């Protein structure tokens, strides 16, 4: 039981209570709590229990062999996501998990099936150059278990392009806005919608944007309420946070029904 998800743990406890599994065998299955030490990495096998989604692999700085071994250690059926990946890494992961899919524009490898979808996140990019960061957010949110609506290239240089999609924005449970240059789009979206906005400053822009510092400061100083900001180019963090908001909302609604 390498990846200790909720269903596996519930089944194990039920099997112990019914006598199908002895306490000794159950103890052996739980022996690796709370992490699996494989030398170069310590895999957090209980991340799914705490967060609702397994540990995500950040590929940059790791060798292709290390990435493939971490994916393999999660087990053959677990949903595993790896960010900042490339084709070379994907080819190696594919050898150990044949069900792996590479989302090239997002730079994400997904092995296994993501969670059942609940709720909707709208991901918006200011320009076409911001799409890779927006896609990182979109694929992350989809894998964690929300529907994603993409609205790309609708920056403030042509506000009519954004306003044309007003209905799609106001019907979202949460929004992710990826913008470089001056980063004003997040404030605009925050001002015309009532849902939480997660702003992602991107490193796209000319010299005075300082590789994302300028849009970061703009977003941090937003006068629109309901806007929060993640780090520069952190599409993963934005997509993850948006998905947590949306899934918690729908789980609460389901609990009240």
End-to-end gap: 34 Å
What's the level 1 CATH class of the largest domain?
Alpha Beta
Low-confidence stretches: none
CATH topology of the largest domain: Rossmann fold
* Morphology: globular
Q: What average pLDDT do the residues reach?
A: 86
**What is the strand arrangement across the widest sheet?**
8-7-9-10-11
Structural class: alpha/beta
Number of strands: 11
Helicity, as a percent range:
40-55%
User: What characterizes the major β-sheet?
Assistant: 5 strands, parallel
Strand and helix order: HHEEHEHEHEEEHEHHEHEHEH
Rounded radius of gyration (Å): 20 Å
Any guess at the CATH architecture of the largest domain?
3-Layer(aba) Sandwich
Number of domains: 2
| Fraction in beta strands | 15-25%
Figure out the total of helices: 11
Task: Write a brief structural summary.
This protein is an alpha/beta fold.
Describe, in plain words, how this protein is organized in 3D.
With 257 residues, this protein is of the alpha/beta class. The protein folds into 2 domains: 6-111, no CATH class; 120-254, Rossmann fold. The chain is built from 11 helices and 11 strands. It has helices at 6-18, 23-29, 47-51, 64-73, 87-96, 131-144, 159-163, 166-170, 185-192, 213-220, 235-256; strands spanning 36-37, 42-43, 57-58, 80-83, 101-103, 108-111, 120-125, 147-151, 174-179, 197-201, 227-229. Helix 4 (64-73) runs parallel beside helix 5 and helix 6 packs parallel to helix 11. The mean pLDDT is 86.
Itemize the secondary structure elements and their pairings.
Layout: H1 6-18, H2 23-29, E1 36-37, E2 42-43, H3 47-51, E3 57-58, H4 64-73, E4 80-83, H5 87-96, E5 101-103, E6 108-111, E7 120-125, H6 131-144, E8 147-151, H7 159-163, H8 166-170, E9 174-179, H9 185-192, E10 197-201, H10 213-220, E11 227-229, H11 235-256
Helix pairs in contact: 4-5, 6-11
């Amino acid at each position: 039981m390498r990846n200790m998800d909720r269903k596996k743990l519930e089944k194990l406890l039920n099997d112990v209570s019914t006598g199908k599994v002895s306490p000794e065998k159950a103890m052996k299955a739980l022996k690796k709590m709370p992490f699996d030490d494989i030398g170069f990495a310590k895999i957090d096998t209980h991340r799914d229990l705490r967060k609702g989604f397994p540990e995500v692999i950040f590929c940059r700085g790791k060798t292709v062999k290390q990435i493939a071994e971490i994916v393999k250690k999660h087990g053959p059926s677990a949903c595993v996501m790896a960010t900042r990946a490339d084709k070379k890494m994907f080819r190696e992961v594919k050898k150990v998990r044949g069900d792996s899919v590479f989302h090239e524009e997002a730079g994400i490898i997904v092995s296994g099936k993501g969670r059942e979808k609940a709720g909707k996140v709208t991901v918006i990019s200011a320009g076409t150059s911001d799409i890779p960061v927006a896609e990182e957010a979109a694929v992350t949110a989809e894998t964690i278990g929300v529907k994603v609506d993409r609205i790309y290239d609708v920056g403030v240089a042509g506000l009519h392009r954004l306003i044309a999609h007003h209905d799609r924005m106001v019907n979202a449970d949460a929004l992710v806005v990826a913008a470089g240059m001056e980063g004003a789009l997040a404030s605009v979206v925050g001002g015309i919608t009532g849902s939480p906005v997660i702003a992602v400053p991107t490193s796209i822009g000319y010299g005075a944007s300082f590789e994302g510092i300028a849009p970061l400061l703009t977003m941090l100083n937003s006068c629109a309420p309901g806007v929060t900001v993640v780090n520069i180019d952190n599409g993963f963090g934005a997509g993850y946070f948006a998905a947590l908001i949306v899934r918690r909302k729908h789980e609460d609604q389901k609990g009240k029904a």
